């Protein structure tokens, strides 16, 4: 998007959101403008994170991208936890994961595939990504399948243990992919274009380019956008229940499809944009990396954060949520494992997304 | 089979079926002769469809094969729907899918493997087939796993939505594999024998050869065999409940193992015959293509057809059925994905088929 | 371990176990010393089996290794069956399978990977192993998922049928891998080191080396260690319930984590030792082969053995057990299928093992 348009819309939507919040009694208007404003601030936060990461140097920067690349989702979820809307937190985690694996990946493959007959990427990371995705599915599947056998206190213990293990695993993965085996993952023999090399090193980060801002400006924008993401998240969360009620939407649908799409919109457009420039490897890496980050870092972090608010959240996801995540992981893995994509594979992912969307909407 | 024998048995079994239907009060006799006659007419219908497809030209013919290749199963199922035997319809869909993936594929690999130590086929299509098979499993798994959360009306809506999406997906797959990416799927670099090339283009169709009949004769036989398949299906369906009851067989077993085997017998023998001629690629394509056609085209079509008879059928398959389909898809995928087969892999598939058969029989 | 140390500890622990059994009223002491003694005798039994197999010649020896390689686990389980502790039998089968796939494989990959950056093995067998592992999961999953639909008698019939089919399948696999397709599995084109060739032929057996003992001595030690494994198993089983009760451990946890680790300790150390000598192919083969042997041979044999004791055991594993086995099989397959391993992949397996261990402990 043209920067001038972007900043204009950012300011206008934020002003409208403020007016709606303070003077407009209708919840739906508050919700719509907070969503719009949040969408733009989340995009700016993402860009500022990358820019700060750039100045922080390769290692620290890579670490920043890999942990705070989904900061907006994390902030929204923290406000949901604070309000005690724990089911909606889980639904938004579910929605972020399946949104990345089905919607973002599906649209990227479809639009990229409409322009280029066959698109190829280096399947080197695919194996590791598939194993990490399987770990995510397992970590969410086990509490759900043991829930009939465990009491609330035991489930709390199990959730905290799993959360600690997932964060440990994610940190070890960063250590592995950025330090001990960096060259193995970055320089496979069958690499096709040198240009892709740099991009695929960072989990969940769009390709590093020269940042638009100075070091100072980047830090300032990071702080500013974090502040506004927080404000708009609070306002959004404040009206979400009333809106869901008035539209007859289930908490599950709002969390998994409305909130998740708002929080991830910036990444969605970035991935599709890259796919249409035939950089399908980077697009796949954004979609898959982002869903791994949500499952292995954001979700377990929220379990610990929920303790601070004394609203302890466990990792017991509902049946439909576990099914949705498992199904998405399997079909995304089946499609991406050969390192070659086309428009039909994108369509397949979108069909599964539409099936899940319909099912969640009807609940 | 020798044509003379074939037509003699066709006529004799049809005569006996007529006599049984009109003069023989014993349901078991009616059932047996209707089954026999149906088996031969279904084989003739399959051959006539191919022959008409041959004259229709490559594109329209490929489309005919891919949609009406399982016409006999569709016709039997329509009569089951008309009688309101919806559970038996679902069982017969289940049985057709697992019969193709386990029995047909298993026997082909076993008999082919007893003759040839290792048989190879081009694994190019395997990736796409695996993703489509996963879509089938997902499409049947989601209604079952959401059934506890949805009312009957919502499930009807979900089933119709999924059915529409599956038929759309199947049509897009035909468009993809026959038009936009035909050459990519047909001319992979690692192809071994030129003879296999032609066969693998058509989903679920046995290899195209010069037809035995003229264009007129083909159309006439298509109409005639469709008529007789319909008549025998009606007679079969009329006696199936009484027979199941008298033998103490469950609806699930009759649908999944008796009816499914009758409807698919012709394809079964064709695939095994091809495998023994070392054309294992064509045999795999019949088995996998046929099960995809059932899951992605026949099953959703039946959901819409059931509305015409005002006996709306949803897509909620029972637990054992979903388990059977998922299990078959996973083991068939695991075995076929390397493009190399042997007798032991055939045995593995048959063992799983026997386990499922025993379990369904005992229900 | 230094042989002198080994035999000293074997004798001391056996003496202490005898003293505890006859003179020490405290169950915990009996349990600990019986466990220790059992651990050493199981290791000796394993080594004696290999040695006898060596003298028996390649075919009979391979067969011996593939069927009695897990004799210690089988003997312990038989005493559990005799005591009617059927749930603990199933838990110990579960624990042996997941212990091999997660703990043994995980530690091997981790320790091997800390010493060597990347370790490679011939992925030739991996495809067949994956299909056999899938058969194991299916064979345990189907009784569990059909249990709501079948009565006790029907489930008994189903369990016996499945057991018969699994043993048949395992025997056919031995026939396939040792006789009809021996050279195909042993001499793949992409083999890297000739040294690995010999090891990977035998299912579940550590690499054949020159035995330390004469033929006579080997047979004598086989008989002696079998006798002592039986004695210590009986003593262990006699105190296990009281100990589990006093520690507040569930039957599931004791079977799956305590007993399974005691029975498998020898293989565990052998596999890790091989991995640290960069013979990762042999280590993988021990871990995967051993879990296949448990699932396809030991478990079904126990179903038949249970009939002799008139304490019929079916194959209905509990939900958590089926989940644990399925999850382990999938992640082990995902990690081992590319034939290349590193320390992070070992860590992933260990994380899943710790998650399952915590969940089983809390039940």
Structure description:
3 copies of one chain form a homotrimer. Chain A is an all-alpha fold and 363 residues long. Chain A has a single domain, classed as Up-down Bundle (A middle domain of Talin 1). Chain A has helices spanning 3-23, 27-55, 58-68, 71-82, 86-115, 124-146, 152-180, 182-186, 196-199, 215-247, 251-276, 280-308, 319-336, 343-362; strands at 119-120, 340-341. A two-stranded antiparallel sheet of chain A has the order 1-2. The longest helix of chain A has 33 residues, at 215-247. Chains in contact: A-B, A-C, B-C. The A-C interface holds A 127-128, 130-132, 134-135, 138-139, 141-143, 145-146, 148-150, 154, 157-158, 161-162, 165-166, 168-169, 172-173, 176, 180-181, 184 and C 117-118, 319-320, 323, 327, 330-331, 334-335, 337-338, 342-345, 347-348, 351-352, 354-356, 358-359, 362-363.
What attributes characterize this protein structure?
homotrimer; two-stranded antiparallel sheet; transport (chains A, B, C); Ca(2+)/H(+) antiporter (chains A, B, C); mainly alpha; ion transport (chains A, B, C); calcium (chains A, B, C); A middle domain of Talin 1; 363 residues; CaH_exchang (chains A, B, C)
